[in-house]
Amino acid sequence: GEVLAGNLCRCTGYRALRSVAALTSGAGLVEGSEHADRFASRLHDPVPGAVPAELGSAVVAYRPSTLAEAIARRASEPGLRVIAGATDVGVEVTRGFKRYPGILSLDAITDPIFSSCSRAEGTVTIGAGVTMTALEDFLRDGGVPLAGQMLPWFASRQIRNRATVGGNLMTASPIGDMSPVWLAHDAVALIGGLSGIREVRVADFFTGYRQTAVGADELLVALRIDDSVAPPRGRRVAWVRKVARRDRVDISTVAGAFLVVLDDRGTVVSARLAYGGVAATPVRALGAEDALIGAVWRAGDGGVRDARALLGSAFAPLSDHRGSASYRQRLITGLFDACLSETGIGSDR
């Protein structure tokens, strides 16, 4: 199911499945055959590095191998379309028929801060060029629990193999799967420019619908997350859900990512409730978060009731073909109720 899932979205329909079935029927692929070697040979001749390559009649592409080269090129030619895995841009080109005269591909950058993940003293750093699959592998040892929970529901294996952490965040979609996760973890974005790296909390990263704090001469370099654990004898509640029409390979109607820290008595020490699909940007329910502080994490507590009431009026979602505004409003409180039912004090789940 997971292996074939991606062939039924990204506008491919069933044609790709039929083509694969026809190609692999009978004798199947034989090593050394035309079909087996056609794409492998192309991979050995990638686009050159910082030297521009002519792609077709009117497209110039750059593929730098260092972050410094990429930032310099970005600063000198801010009109270039930046790609990494190109899972969104590829569809824009093949199905939306968009054309970009210049491309800056970041997939060959080898600087560790951009291309890898690291963990040190309770802090996790995730490079913007890290693929979702690589992030999954990194998190198998634990840490950043909301990301680990959401990733299996992100698109499909084929797309996760190419899609990057930075590319997903830079689309700034209000219904992007991972943005509520980074909001709930209070991640910090590291943004690189000619003058160095500056820091912007993801809470301040989205400046409008599909707009970010990254300048036209800058690149997103990495995310940094304080992944310290709960207080002694306390616990950390990490809960995430994505509501969509399909359980795989679908855009969410509403997503919720909640991170609540409890002390040893079950009292809320801190809370971050992040949502996607309820506003022009991914957003946190700050009023509800404040109401939870000092409350006992269980249904019926006064602070919890206050928080739920505030959630009912925190956002003004819009209606579209995925769901009406009233449906989304019910999901905002419904996700909170589900989280409390599964994780609250006295819950048997």
What does this structure look like?
The chain is α+β, with helices and mostly antiparallel strands and 349 residues long. Among the domains are: 114-226, Uridine Diphospho-n-acetylenolpyruvylglucosamine Reductase, domain 3, CATH 3.30.465; 235-343, CO dehydrogenase flavoprotein, C-terminal domain (Enolase-like, domain 1), CATH 3.30.390.50. The chain has 14 helices and 15 strands. It has helices at 2-5, 15-24, 34-43, 67-76, 89-94, 112-115, 132-138, 145-150, 157-160, 165-170, 179-184, 286-292, 302-311, 325-343, and strands at residues 53-55, 59-62, 81-83, 102-105, 117-120, 123-127, 188-193, 196-201, 206-208, 211-212, 219-226, 235-243, 254-262, 268-276, 283-284. It has a five-stranded antiparallel sheet. A four-stranded mixed sheet has the order 1-2-4-3, with helices on one face. Strands 12-13-14-15 form a four-stranded antiparallel sheet. Helix 12 packs antiparallel against helix 13 (302-311). The protein is globular. It starts with a helix and ends in a 6-residue tail after the last helix.
